[in-house]
């Protein structure tokens, strides 16, 4: 398995005979169903342009104020800083979308996560970078993102990474400041150790996110009520028997969008001279 490029120079990873990971940067203007969805769910109409721009400006200010105050997670959003998390396959962008056209981000927070190699802030940074890259796709902006997080054999060593400070930071980052449509957060293999961890996060969750978090334990059939089995790998009880994407290849794929991460890193509030 290796990184390849199409005739236009766009990177892709060929996973199986009919499956590949490739960003779709095309607009959906000629897709009547997408246009309808944008109009009805996102209110993307000419009449609300000015209102939407004001809201966008407010969101951008919020993000960059957050970024300025939380540099230990949001600074230097680069492939170099997140490469180990990608190579260890802790954060993965699955090659297939779900049945509603949503991108699926899979985070391994159990036995695969070696805290000595990847700290919790680095895991948050890697997840944020993956979201930012996925949001280059107009269809992902429209349909949103599905999250699946596995806590298989989560240990006490991992639990101590989740201090209340970091819990609030990661929830605020995703819940308030990241410009994405989070459709569902599907949690699998949630053990007793996980239950202790979740008690740290719960006070910081808003009403909307509380409604979108689903606990499936080891019941993959429960997961498939939200994401069809034919959209998921065998490790999640799915029917896709294609090999898992090699972590180093995933890191190389993300690196092709380093230009976008650098561009976003260059924006923000100027620091006052002391």
UniProtKB/TrEMBL annotation:
<dbReference type="Pfam" id="PF00650">
    <property type="entry name" value="CRAL_TRIO"/>
</dbReference>
<protein>
    <recommendedName>
        <fullName>CRAL-TRIO domain-containing protein</fullName>
    </recommendedName>
</protein>
<dbReference type="InterPro" id="IPR036865">
    <property type="entry name" value="CRAL-TRIO_dom_sf"/>
</dbReference>
<dbReference type="InterPro" id="IPR001251">
    <property type="entry name" value="CRAL-TRIO_dom"/>
</dbReference>
<feature type="domain" description="CRAL-TRIO">
    <location>
        <begin position="81"/>
        <end position="244"/>
    </location>
</feature>
């Amino acid at each position: 398995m290796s990184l390849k490029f199409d005739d236009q120079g766009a990177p892709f990873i060929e996973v199986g005979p009919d499956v590949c990971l490739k960003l779709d940067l095309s607009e959906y203007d000629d897709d009547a169903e997408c246009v309808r969805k944008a109009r009805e769910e996102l209110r993307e109409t000419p009449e609300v342009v000015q209102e939407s721009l004001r809201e966008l400006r407010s969101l951008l200010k919020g993000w960059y104020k957050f970024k300025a105050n939380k540099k230990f997670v949001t600074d230097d959003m680069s492939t170099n800083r997140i490469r180990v998390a990608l190579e260890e396959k802790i954060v993965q962008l699955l090659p297939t979308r779900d049945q509603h056209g949503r991108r699926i981000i899979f985070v391994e927070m159990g036995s695969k996560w070696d805290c000595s190699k990847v700290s919790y802030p680095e895991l948050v940074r890697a997840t944020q970078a993956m979201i930012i890259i996925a949001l280059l796709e107009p269809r992902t902006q429209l349909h949103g993102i599905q999250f699946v997080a596995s806590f298989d054999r989560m240990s006490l060593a991992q639990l101590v990474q989740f201090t209340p400070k970091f819990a609030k930071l990661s929830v605020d980052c995703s819940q308030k400041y990241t410009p994405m449509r989070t459709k569902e957060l599907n949690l699998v293999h949630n053990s007793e150790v996980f239950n202790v961890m979740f008690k740290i996060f719960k006070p910081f969750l808003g009403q909307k996110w509380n409604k979108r978090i689903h606990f499936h334990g080891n019941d993959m059939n429960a997961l498939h009520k939200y994401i069809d089995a034919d959209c998921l790998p065998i490790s999640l009880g799915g029917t896709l028997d294609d090999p898992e994407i090699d972590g180093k290849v995933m890191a190389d794929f993300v690196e092709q969008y380093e230009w976008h991460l650098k561009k976003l890193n260059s924006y923000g509030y100027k620091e006052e001279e002391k």
